[in-house]
Design goal:
By secondary structure, this protein is α/β, with parallel strands linked by helices. It contains five helices and six strands; from the N terminus they run ααααβββββαβ. Keywords: Cell wall biogenesis/degradation, Lipoprotein, Lyase, Membrane, Transmembrane, Transmembrane helix.
Length: 151
């Protein structure tokens, strides 16, 4: 009933008999502006939800982090350079600057998100080897950290 009212108004409340002309008309031909309006509303809602999820990911978060030193291409398209201060995060936008603090020793480093990951359950961020060296986690490989978005 709602679908007919949105995409084919008059169908739900029309008591007259259907004619050959009615059969030739399609919902798209009848209501192209209405379909466009519906699509625009859908896009606005999707964009709002995306910004909400980005904002929730932007709050301070704590968990386990690991480091990696591959030289393959990252999800952002650039080549991974273990000597740069970069990191991988599952949701934050590429280019986002994040401060990562090692909870064991209090050391911190600012990294730029340029990849997706980590892909191991229970880990919240992967940092490059250089970043791991700055916060003293190369030997352990995995440490409890907190991070917060800077920009």
């Amino acid at each position: 009933m709602i679908f007919e009212t949105l995409f084919w108004p008059g169908l739900a409340f029309n008591n007259r008999r259907e004619t050959k002309r009615d059969r030739k008309l399609t919902p798209t031909k009848l209501n192209a502006p209405l379909v466009g309006l519906f699509l625009a509303a859908f896009i606005i809602v999707a964009a709002t939800l995306a910004s909400i999820s980005q904002a929730s990911a932007a709050g301070p978060s704590c968990g386990r982090a690991s480091w990696y030193a591959l030289t393959s291409k990252t999800a952002s398209g650039e080549r991974m350079d273990p000597s740069k201060l970069t990191a991988a995060h599952p949701r934050l936008r590429f280019g986002t600057k994040v401060e990562v603090v090692n909870q064991r020793n209090g050391k911190s480093v600012v990294v730029r998100i340029n990849d997706r990951g980590p892909f191991i359950k229970g880990r919240i961020i992967d940092v490059s080897k250089a970043a791991a060296g700055h916060i003293g986690m190369i030997k352990s490989g995995v440490e409890k950290v907190c991070y917060r978005v800077i920009s």
